[in-house]
């Protein structure tokens, strides 16, 4: 076989399996509205970030930090697995500019995602695998149960890491319960204060009503007194004017009589 034949066969093989190139599919930009390309790129980036975080967790010396990182990794894996069905629906959607082989390649990439996601280390113990009843079903072939078949007492013993995590959880739970108890006591105190204030206001309502009645009565009496006083003053003023008029009339008559007598002499 000549060199030209070898190069030709290599090119043919590369072209045949080029559709399975992840980087090429991720960078494929057939349409600006290609939701699959964006979704797959986002999931692929999250998988890479999760792998880096898993490596960081494996090197972490603090067990509490390791537990927290592993818990976050499990949440990330669950979220990514929930995104796979949506991405699978987008993979079979026909888009202008995509060939049938490209659509098939997209479907193959989506089918490989669950294995890639499950392969992310998260510190969880592998599920037990029993013959006859625990194998993967036909409808969920992506679920795998890996175990060495050992179920002795050591298998179920608490590890130091899980024991420390449980103790930390119990401590935080006790602190939270204490805080909630203090808040409950404060709320009870405020409730009792509000109840006492309400009772005091209920007792003050009759007194306030009585004061309002007395004020209204005093205002009415004062108004009547002012009317009577005005009438009395008016009467006194009229009587005084009448007396003055009589006195002036007598004086005028006296002067007139005096002048008459003087002029008569």
TrEMBL record:
<keyword id="KW-0472">Membrane</keyword>
<dbReference type="GO" id="GO:0005484">
    <property type="term" value="F:SNAP receptor activity"/>
</dbReference>
<comment type="function">
    <text>Vesicle trafficking protein that functions in the secretory pathway.</text>
</comment>
<keyword id="KW-0175">Coiled coil</keyword>
<dbReference type="GO" id="GO:0006906">
    <property type="term" value="P:vesicle fusion"/>
</dbReference>
<feature type="transmembrane region" description="Helical">
    <location>
        <begin position="246"/>
        <end position="263"/>
    </location>
</feature>
<dbReference type="InterPro" id="IPR000727">
    <property type="entry name" value="T_SNARE_dom"/>
</dbReference>
<dbReference type="Pfam" id="PF05739">
    <property type="entry name" value="SNARE"/>
</dbReference>
<dbReference type="GO" id="GO:0048278">
    <property type="term" value="P:vesicle docking"/>
</dbReference>
<dbReference type="GO" id="GO:0006886">
    <property type="term" value="P:intracellular protein transport"/>
</dbReference>
<feature type="region of interest" description="Disordered">
    <location>
        <begin position="124"/>
        <end position="143"/>
    </location>
</feature>
<keyword id="KW-1133">Transmembrane helix</keyword>
<protein>
    <recommendedName>
        <fullName>t-SNARE coiled-coil homology domain-containing protein</fullName>
    </recommendedName>
</protein>
<dbReference type="InterPro" id="IPR006012">
    <property type="entry name" value="Syntaxin/epimorphin_CS"/>
</dbReference>
<comment type="subunit">
    <text>Part of the t-SNARE complex.</text>
</comment>
<dbReference type="InterPro" id="IPR045242">
    <property type="entry name" value="Syntaxin"/>
</dbReference>
<keyword id="KW-0812">Transmembrane</keyword>
<keyword id="KW-0653">Protein transport</keyword>
<feature type="coiled-coil region">
    <location>
        <begin position="40"/>
        <end position="90"/>
    </location>
</feature>
<comment type="similarity">
    <text>Belongs to the syntaxin family.</text>
</comment>
<dbReference type="GO" id="GO:0012505">
    <property type="term" value="C:endomembrane system"/>
</dbReference>
<keyword id="KW-0813">Transport</keyword>
<feature type="domain" description="T-SNARE coiled-coil homology">
    <location>
        <begin position="170"/>
        <end position="232"/>
    </location>
</feature>
<dbReference type="GO" id="GO:0000149">
    <property type="term" value="F:SNARE binding"/>
</dbReference>
<dbReference type="GO" id="GO:0031201">
    <property type="term" value="C:SNARE complex"/>
</dbReference>
């Amino acid at each position: 076989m000549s060199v030209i034949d070898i190069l030709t066969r290599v090119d043919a093989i590369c072209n045949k399996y080029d559709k399975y190139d992840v980087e090429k599919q991720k960078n494929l930009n057939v349409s600006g509205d290609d939701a699959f390309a964006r979704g797959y790129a986002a999931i692929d980036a999250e998988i890479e970030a999760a792998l880096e975080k898993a490596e960081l967790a494996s090197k972490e010396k603090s067990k509490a930090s390791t537990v927290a990182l592993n818990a976050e990794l499990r949440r990330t894996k669950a979220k990514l697995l929930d995104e796979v069905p949506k991405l699978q629906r987008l993979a079979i959607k026909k888009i202008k500019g995509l060939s049938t082989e490209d659509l098939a390649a997209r479907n193959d990439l989506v089918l490989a995602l669950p294995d890639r996601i499950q392969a992310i280390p998260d510190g969880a113990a592998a599920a037990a695998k029993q013959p006859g009843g625990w194998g993967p079903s036909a409808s969920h072939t992506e679920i795998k149960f890996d175990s060495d078949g050992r179920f002795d007492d050591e298998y179920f013993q608490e590890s130091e890491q899980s024991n420390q995590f449980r103790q930390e959880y119990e401590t935080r739970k006790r602190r939270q319960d204490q805080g909630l108890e203090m808040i409950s006591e404060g709320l009870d105190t405020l409730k009792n204060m509000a109840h006492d204030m309400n009772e005091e206001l209920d007792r003050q309502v009759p007194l306030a009503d009585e004061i309002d009645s007395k004020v209204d009565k005093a205002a009415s009496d004062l108004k009547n007194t002012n009317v009577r006083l005005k009438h009395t003053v008016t009467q006194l003023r009229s009587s005084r004017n009448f007396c003055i008029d009589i006195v002036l009339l007598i004086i005028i008559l006296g002067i007139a009589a005096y002048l008459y007598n003087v002029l008569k002499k």
